[in-house]
Amino acid sequence: MSATEQRTAALKVEDLEVAYDVRGVLRPVLRGVSFEIQPGEAYGLVGESGCGKSTTAFAAVRYLPGNGHITGGRTLIGGDDVTAMGDEALRELRASRISMVYQDPGQSLNPTIKVGRQVAEAFAVLGASKDEARERAVEALRRVRIADAERVMERYPYQLSGGMQQRAVIAMALACDPQLLILDEPTTGLDATVEAEVLDLVATLRDETGAAILLIAHNLGVVRRTCDRVGVMYAGRIVEEGIAGEVFDDPQHPYTVGLLRCLPRRGAAKSERRLDTIPGSLPLIGTPLPACVFEDRCTLATAECRTVLPTAAHPRPDRTVFCHHLDRVGELVAAPVTAAVGEVAPGDVVLQLEDVSKTFRQGGHEVRALVGVDLELRAGETLGLVGESGSGKTTLAKAILGIHAADQGGVIRLDRETLAGLTTQRPADARRAIQIIFQNPDSALNRSKTVRSILSRALSKLAGLTGQAAEDRLEKIRDEVVLSPRHLDLKPRQLSGGLKQRVAIGNAFAGDPRIVVCDEPTSALDVSVQAAILNLLADLQRDEQASYIVISHDLGVVRYLSDRIAVLYLGRLMEVGDAATVFAGPHHPYTEALLSAVPSVDGDPPARIRLEGEVPSAIDVPSGCVFHTRCPRAIEGTCEASEPPLVEVETGHMMRCHIPIDELRRLQGSDAD
Amino acid sequence: MSAVDPTVLEPEPLKDAGAAADRRSARRERLRLLVRNPSAIIGGAILIFWIICAVFGDVIAPYSPFATDFDGHLPPGGTHILGTDQLGRDVLSRVIIGARDVLIAAPICATIGVGLGTLIGLLMGYYRGWLDDGLGRIIEAFLALPVPLVALLTLAALGSSTTTVVLTVGIFFTPIVARTVRAAVLAERENDYVQAAKLRGENGLYIMFREILPNITGPIVVEFTVRIGYAVFTIAFLSFLGVGIQPPTPDWGLMVSEEYALIIGGYWWVTVFPALAIASLVIAVNLVADALQEVNER
User: A328 and B201 in contact by Cβ < 8 A?
Assistant: First the structure.
């Protein structure tokens, strides 16, 4: 390391202060951010939304929106002061020495221009001739592991999958051989398996090019997998900085400790522990803050924190923490986990699915989105649905809800009564019994109505309550979802994301549902808010004896809430079993790959399974076992020939695989060594 | 005792600071934006001028609009600021009084058009399928017809009266409004709250009018203002063709049509002043519509 310290930092940010001009008033967003990235190093900035991660990245290359102003400090790229640069020098710098990759690759690419031309353009800007640019574009695409580069060149962005698009964007970003590559949430919105591929690519390219990387992510696991060092931001300051793995394993700032305790980690389940939450909420932009920005949410805070700016302390080697009470942080780390929700004994079977399929027609083709699904759900039980996008999770949930009717032949039974396909054909009782909590409360709540009118309407339609009875019940629900009376007369847009999701949950629970589908219930929320919502869902389930069907791409969330897990691939159940069993293994090879793909904040297992290629199209399904085209453990001659049945391999554990369970146990056990 | 008290940890992520006040201030903010908008100021001022003329016309107008006891074709200036027409009626008085009819008729046309159009647009956008296809074809056919000709024929067949003019113009606006509303509904129905309402067992009428409609008032209000402007124009146009409002009513379009042939003879004032009145009102209404749209889109 000493050699690198002699070199000029790839990016050096010194006391950077940025403010946004909101109607003539300067609202500070960054309050003195300092950090350094050495050449070839990967540095991660983490924190909840609004903490200033992206602003830091934009300010570092002076690419702020019109109303953003750098009000103090400076940034140096390769030793050159960006804040003092003239326009021409700045343009030159952006063209040749830095590159940025944004969250949504679909928006970074021009939909009307072929991918090849867009990538070639990146070289043409650097002065390459037309033919040369094209040649180098093909090379660049090969470099980002696009096998069929020549053909991909001729495609339009919409013809590529999200992962391929992001590769093309990265290829463009690497065109100038940048000293610094800024990645802003590069894998958010991608499937876990695709995310893993993109992160692997970033790691390989970093080794090849020696570029420094600034990675911005809210997902701590992504940062741990990719970065050497990490800075934890809160309200425009870096509160803790250090080596990524060490910070996450041994946090020293109260905010970092709190953030990590909010996460369902290390296979935590609701029956074992409650999730911690951070009291209070993120400060809004422009609110005046105390000297230590975290003071009003910190349980260790004293009068000193309000008035005296904490100075940098180094409680560990390679660690910088800004806190007055480092000596007491241990109390937070060692604090016992809060009482568990308790084991809920599952009751009778509430919902029964037999041979449920769903076929869509698309331009003359049959798309079999769901194929012969058999499932059971018991009272008070949570079933987690897991799989990549396109695996049929949402299709299954919609068929259960009656948003679309399943194919003829399949049966959905509620309390042994066969249900009609569409919700409109079902009796009111059945309709009330199955409700949903949507992913995005902004879309799920009618923005023209007050919270009170939303909940009242749900009560009158679902519970048949009006007048005083409805008001009493409204109070009860409000209390259950932890809203204050004041919130009832507000409209959704006046509430924070977490509060909105509470209203949506109250809405779903208005008619005492038997089954609640939770479709990515926390993916639109920040980590500290997510913990509170997950706790609320667990509490409500205990009190109301409701069954949940949880869909989430976040396996930590699924693991935390679920009693049983169903893994779907191309509309087929691949594995069903108790949550603990499915997560502990032996797993179906697909489940194994999924689990292995998800970057964990606790670090990755020594050997990772990498899935090749993309999910095949549901129009043209592979023969035999549908997973054989991507399965790392596929047996040649067997797997492509016949589809294995879904059989019980051990008590309460069903699997659809040709490989015997003992063999799987042996294979997976040996890999882990 | 650990420092972590479970009661402290219980979340209370309230977005405080008087949220009711937030709501009021959001409304005030929109109003403030509108008041600051130059189009809104100019358009509003002209509009208010004409509304005052319409309401207090009898008091403001120097003469009766029907009185003919002056010399015909007196040029502007003197006792008749804007001159007199062929029959010796005071042009200024007729323009002032003329504001009344147009300011009653135009909003009624717009109301009919927007009312029916919203209803049809909601039905098409919400139900889609064959209803949307069927009504869509009819609307397209309707829009393909040359409006002046068909309006002319309709009015010739039904007979001209203020009522028939207003109804005809209103109905001719319907398909245009329906298309706008349909587009807004199509975007809005993708929201999960529509799905949630269906799962709650709401019927189509409730979802259309109570769930979706309140969220698309923005484009509807804009459409309403735009239609008022067009209505002023269309009514004047029909009067000009002689199938609109009938003489001796002091209607602007009628005034233009009565003597436009005499401009060559040098009697320009009888035609130009009412024409300016029409133009200013149409422009004023459109300026206000633009401003509303701009504020809506923020």
Answer: no
Q: What is the pLDDT of residue B130?
A: 92
Three-class DSSP category at A175: coil
Query: Per the structure, how many domains does chain B have?
Result: 1
The CATH class of the A349-568 domain is alpha beta
Mutate to test the interface with A, among B15, B202, B203, B220 (most CBs of A within 10 A): B15
Identify whether B126 is part of a domain.
yes
Q: Give the CATH number for residue B130.
A: 1.10.3720.10
DSSP state of B212: I
Paired residues of A486 in beta bridges: none
Query: CB distance B11–A532 less than 8 Å?
Result: yes
Note the pLDDT tens digit of each residue in A275-307. 888 877 777 777 778 888 888 888 887 888 888
Which tokens go with B136?
């869509």
Q: CB distance from B32 to chain A under 8 Å?
A: no
Is residue B23 assigned to a domain? no
Residues of A in contact with B4 (CB under 8 A): 276, 299, 331-332, 335-336
Q: What is the pLDDT of residue A347?
A: 80
Q: What integer is the mean pLDDT of B102-128?
A: 92
Residue B245 resides in a domain: yes
Across the interface, whether the CB atoms of B12 and A494 are under 8 A apart is answered no
CA A514 from chain centre, in angstroms, equals 28
On whether residue B65 sits in a domain, the answer given is: no
Backbone dihedral angles phi then psi of residue A354, each to the nearest 5 degrees: -125, 120
The pLDDT of B123-137, averaged and rounded, is 92
Give contacts of A532 with chain B, Cβ < 8 Å: 11, 13
User: Can you give the residue range of the structural domain that contains B232?
Assistant: 76-296
pLDDT tens-digit readout, A601-652: 887 766 677 777 777 777 778 888 888 888 888 887 788 888 888 888 888 8
Prior bond of B146 cis (ω within 30°) = no
CB A183 within 8 A of CB A213: yes
List helix spans (H) across A263-392: 303-307, 329-334
Here the tokens at position A112 are 């009307």
Order of strands across the sheet that contains A411-414: A365-378, A349-362, A411-414, A417-418
Question: In Å, what is the CA distance from B280 to each residue of A67, A396, B77, B98?
Answer: 38, 60, 22, 14
Report the chain A residue with the minimal C-alpha distance to residue B215. A448
A187 in Cβ contact with A163 (< 8 Å): no
A150 Cβ contact partners less than 8 Å away, ≥ 6 residues apart: A138
To 5 degrees, how large is the angle CA B182–CA B183–CA B189?
80
Nearest CA in chain A to B190: A443
Region(s) of chain A under CATH 3.40.50.300: 349-568
Question: Any CB–CB contact under 8 A between B298 and chain A?
Answer: no
pLDDT per residue over B217-243, tens digit each?
888 988 998 898 888 888 888 888 888
Q: Can you point out the beta strands (E) in A526-658? A: 547-551, 564-569, 572-578, 647-650, 653-655
Q: Do B19 and A300 touch (CB under 8 A)?
A: no
